[in-house]
Amino acid sequence: MRFWIGVASRDHVDKGVEGGFCQLCHGKASAMRRVSPGDWIVYYSPKTEMRGGEPVQAFTAIGRIKDGEPYAFDMGGGFVPSRRDVAFMPCRDAPIRPLVEQLSFIRNKQSWGSVFRFGLVEIGEADFEIIASAMGVESFRSAAA
C-alpha cells in the first residue's frame, strides 16, 4: 500500500469525486500505472480552475484506489485521458499552510509549493495521516473498509 498526493484544480477534483475516478498529470497513462489498487490518494488543489481561478491551496478530496486497471475515457475533442476508479470518503477541505511545518515531504518550508509541480507525489504514511486527520478523516484505514 502506497500513499499519494494528486494535484488538480478544485473543479477537476469535484468532477472526479462525483464520478468516482482519479485522473492525474493531464490524463497521462504513466501516472495511472504508478498508482495501484489499495493505494490511498489525497488531492491538493492549488486553484479553483486549471487556467485562472482563485487560490484554494488546500487538500480537497481523499480516497482509496479501487480494484481494476487504468482505463481510457473519451472526453471528446480527441482527449482520451487515463483514469482509475476511487472510493472517495466524506471529508472537509484542509488548508495546507497550517500543515507545512508538520509535513516531512515538504523539505523547503519557504517554497512549499514547489513539491506539487509534478502533479503526482508519493508520500509516507505518517504524512498521509496528518493530512487525513486535518480533513476530518481520523482513521482512514477503517473508514474505507
Q: What does this molecule look like?
A:
The mean pLDDT is 92. This protein has helices at residues 10-19, 29-34, 125-134, 140-143, and strands at 3-7, 21-22, 40-47, 55-65, 71-72, 82-88, 94-95, 120-123. The chain is of the alpha+beta class and 145 residues long. The chain has a single domain, classed as ph1033 like fold (Roll), CATH 3.10.590. The radius of gyration is 14 Å and the shape is globular. Strands 1, 2, 3, 4, 5, 6, 7 and 8 form an eight-stranded mixed beta sheet that branches. The longest helix has 10 residues, at 10-19.
Task: Provide a brief overview of the structure.
By secondary structure, the chain is of the alpha+beta class.
Q: Count of helices?
A: 4
Secondary structural class: alpha+beta
Order of helices and strands: EHEHEEEEEEHH
Whole-number mean pLDDT: 92
Oligomer: single chain
How big is the Rg?
14 Å
Reading off the top of the CATH hierarchy, the class is best stated as Alpha Beta
Write the layout of secondary structure elements.
Elements: E1 3-7, H1 10-19, E2 21-22, H2 29-34, E3 40-47, E4 55-65, E5 71-72, E6 82-88, E7 94-95, E8 120-123, H3 125-134, H4 140-143
Parallel strand pairs: 1-3
Antiparallel strand pairs: 1-8, 2-6, 3-4, 4-6, 4-7, 5-6
Annotation keywords:
145 residues; alpha+beta; ph1033 like fold; 8-stranded mixed beta sheet; 8 strands; 21% helix; 28% strand
